[in-house]
Known about the structure:
Belongs to the NPC2 family. It comes from Parathielavia appendiculata. The chain is mainly beta. The protein has a single domain, classed as Ganglioside M2 Activator Protein, Chain: A. The chain has 2 helices and 10 strands; from the N terminus they run αβββββαβββββ. The strands form 3 sheets. It has a 5-stranded antiparallel sheet. Strands 2-3-6 form a 3-stranded antiparallel sheet, with helices on one face. The chain is globular. The two termini are 25 Å apart.
Amino acid sequence: MSDALNMKLSAIVLALAASVSARNVFRYEGQALVRRNDLDVPGQNPLKFCEADREKDIITIEEVILTPNPPEAGTTLVIEASGTVKETILDGAYVNLEVKYGYIRLINTQADLCKEIKNVDLECPIEKGKISIIKSIDLPKEIPPTKGKYNVQADVYSKDNEHITCLTATVIFGRKSLGGILDL
């Protein structure tokens, strides 16, 4: 599998796993998890909600825990996520995914949510009610091909264009330095 396709699929898995509450090897700015504002997704993770009204979102994400946090290349990442689905999500739901390297847009695509959530052992329809997932993902030792800061946004909609959720993350790929900060 090409590095670009591998990165694209990894980004989609993160967006989808979290939205029905992962992504591959990443480090987030600052090693300590600090609650900065109401955009932080609860739990031990680098995810944030998009700056939009979440009141009418179909999914309420209650918590996302990544172990280890932050994830490390060549290890197994365990994703634990929980939330509430306010109305059944049917085939036809989709995610608008954007990945940028700095200011350069690498990926700008629309993916079939129901097809992609099979990666976290879920299927459509996703019924109304409480939902929890626990998924282990073996992370590759070497990706992406370019070290640096990547910005990911996943905006998820139902087949009727009702907002499901929107998540963002800033991820930094590279090697560890002595203090856990990445050398770029």
